[in-house]
User: Fold Alpha-glucosidase from Streptomyces canus.
Amino acid sequence: MSNRPDPALPWETSQRRNGARRGAVEWWHDAVCYQVYLRSFADGNGDGVGDLAGLRRRLPYLSELGVDAVWVNLWYPSPMADGGYDITDYRDIDPLFGSLPEARTLIEEIHTLGLRILIDLVPNHTSSQHPWFGEALAGGPGCVERNRYIFRPGRGSDGDLPPNNWRSVFGGSAWSRAVEPDGMPEEWYLHLFTPEQPDLNWNNAEVHREFESVLRFWFDHGVDGFRIDVAHAMSKAPGLPDLGPADIELIGSAAHPDHPHWDREGIHEIFRGWRAVADSYAEPRMFVAEACARNSERLSRYVRPAELHTAFNFDYLTSPWRAAQMRTAIDKSLTTMAAVGAPTAWVLSNHDVVRHLTRYGRPQAEGPVHDLADHLLAGPFDLELGTRRARAAALLTLALPGCAYLYQGEELGLWEVEDLPDEALQDPIWQRSGHTNRGRDGCRVPMPWSGDTPPFGFSPDHAGSDPWLPQPQQWERLTAQVQQDDEQSMLELYRRALHIRRAHPALGKGALLWDPTTGPGVLAFTRPPGFQCIVNFRPDALRLPDHDGVLLSSVPLDSGRLPGDAAVWLTR
Ligand code: BGC
Assistant:
């Protein structure tokens, strides 16, 4: 059993290492957090959409897997123009997913298992069906309610041109024109995402008060933290100046040093206010930022001591499977985060990007790849290679200092479903790109739990509806049920790695020392006391250095050699 640890290791104990689980102060420094994309995790009521009832039933799975916290993606009432990132009520649960009392029960159950719970906060925009937006439209130009959003007169003699040239991240102009009840066009409103997601005006004190109250509402319900959606977007340049040519090329990124709507200085004041709210609670509360900054120094500004606690490391996520690029991403992140006293939050996949198993199963780019459209150009997909690299990547990620985020299904070895039928696609990117970009549905396909035909236990037996996205038949060999008894499976690799990580004194927080003697195509580092991780990115096998024991390897070792595209954890 190559990926089993040596028996009776001295540090192996049933005690939690330093308690990323409940009770520990600053638990986010080394927690492993599992992202539950709620609509695709488990369907409790048989309507084909994941919900709180389904999640509650699967909590023992998460606890046994060995994670410390659960980030539950969007559960708020929403017309679902963007998978729920268009919220109409920040203090309730969409009936599609359950109810507020059920959310309270879920929070208690998560805590009873010794886990923590994070939820999403979407502060850049509401739904266009939020009562505030209805009031803004009804009140007409100049009303106070309109000042909660960003309305402007159009350009051109009839005002029929958008106020500036900003582009929606999902394609097309970032402006839509409001229409009076009699059909007369009037002012334009800003939406950096879909027209159903109008941007809030963060120069308005009422908006600040409202979000601080929302934070308290959920903290009072026992939520341990928030993942801040597009944390780099709330502050806009005075006068809303046009984008320059370079910014138009790079819609989603903050490449420009003074970008008019990404990663602006004004954001930090907002976060200082939120940190004060979190710090006013006796039991620690935290924030993790989904922030795109132009470099890791800029990103580290979001997690300075009086601001947010952690920020996803997207440089790591978008690195190709190449030792040099991975090492650069790791080094830069560790250095810049350490400079502000924050842990690094490692992540390989989420609900917005192509699953890493699929990215790694293609010829690797020199630079970052995360958009499905670009990714498809990269050549044929090799499932075996992608799986092999994903296994190695799991061991690399969980051996790094800091906290880590797992995206549901990566522990089962799920791949991106790239052949969803056109009519099944629901991501607004598909429509807004004029059917040129298939969007993010491929990483959101419902989880396979058991059985040999769809819905693979995702919905209860005899459910009335099919899963909201079709699952590939080949996932019959990736169900949690099939994998749980197979010691060579991805699921067992993750379980074992998480178990070791929790018990081993070197893992989680602490130092990382690179081994200076390794050649190109290899990453090798030591974590004191007594732990070494070696990742072989090359195709050929590598002779292992002297060591005391093998804790875990991503593939069977070959007479003391680590095969290509594989990783090993050693004691020494
Ligand atoms: C979320 C996306 C969402 C967008 C707009 C992102 O960062 O993760 O899923 O479409 O924000 O809210």
